[in-house]
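Action item from last week, closing it out:
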Amino acid sequence: LVGATPDEVVVGNSITVNIHTLIGTFLDELLAGNGPEREEMARADGEWDRSVEPAVLVNELDFPSDHYAIRAQLRQRGIDPDEKLRVVESRDGRTIDPRDIEAALEAHDDVGIVWMPTALYRSGQLFDVERIAAAAHEAGAYAGFDAAHSAGAVPHAFGDVGVDFAVWCTYKYLNAGPGAIGALFVAERHHGLTPALAGWWGHEKATQFEMRMTYTPADSAGAWQIGTPPLLAAAPLEGSVELLREAGIDRLRAKSLALTDFLIALVDDRLPDVSVGTPREHGARGGHVALEHPEAERLSKALTDRGVVVDFRPPNVVRVCPAAPYTSFADVLDVVDEIEAVLESGAHEAYATGAGGVT
């Protein structure tokens, strides 16, 4: 599903916890004078300049929790996040131009970690992971990714394109259900590092039950597990991942693109007051479509009460995700029928705004 060996992937924790431990780990490596290990990824002397505090490059359209975690990890190391969290701005409020990521790396030689999503949570823009990883490595930085909005919907090849580390959830496209466990990837070349957040479940398995007071990390991505995994949060993966493997990620991607193509065409044809905020090119689109409307919050609530499961993202986005394993083209047509009916009747006007909470 993500293009990795079994030892490079592990389930555990949540996305935010995994960001904490991975960002912390690689900041520690940079502060210790250990830059990216491969020759083509290192600075001229092969090591990070100890006199320069490393910066982390992110973008302004990231999911906020990513920034919260990265800022916290910078602060814990005495690094001012207002100075060292470098943010790539969006040109249109919807997408990030990869040229702006590359320009930021050229402008700031203190970037030690590039942290980007594989797909934006609001607009659904799909990033060119290989291009970003190559740019990071050329600048001597590690390349990390948040794959929450693509893992299970889009084929990835993390191991082949030089990704250093990544995180994702299993409750979205991996279909393990609300509250399901998180997952992470750490490239084999980084195995053996001591995680920033250590716990007994990440200990070397051969000696784990010897209960030593000194920590020996597992020589795999398993080192970044922390405590005992919550089994009820992990159990659904046994069935859901097997179904995805049987279907095949390439077939799922093809159907996903066909479903979202159909949805976009229907919106263009039948919903004149609704805009599509998601890139239309297949190579730039993930698994969901962002529908923009000034009354998006009320519209989302009205659709939910009619049995249409969508969600609202401020200020004006209703996300519609026709998940490929079980969504039909008839389902997509029904969704557009419901949106059209709500907007034409004004039924959404009966709903309040600003109540907050997760949708």
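Closing note: The two ends are 27 Å apart (CA to CA).
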